[in-house]
Amino acid sequence: MNLEDVRTTLNGQMEPREQQVEDAAKIIDNNGSVVVQRPVGTGKTEIAIQTMLGNALSTEEDRYRSLVLGPSNSVVSQW
Length: 79
Description:
Helix 1 crosses helix 2 (18-29) and helix 2 (18-29) crosses helix 3. The protein is an all-alpha fold. The chain is built from 4 helices and no strands. It starts with a helix and ends with a helix.
């Protein structure tokens, strides 16, 4: 998937930064099996949610599940 495909998938929901588009493309290309490691405040949570939303909207199934793991309770509670 190229970067323009990611922007099209997000469909105006947000204006992602270039690194977020690159991360979203990696997430999609690897079927969600990706670890995104970026500094605080770079939009990791935002792009993860947008990518999950895009996947959920593009499936023909009635349900879509995602698993989000975090290194600590404080990080998990932010979800």
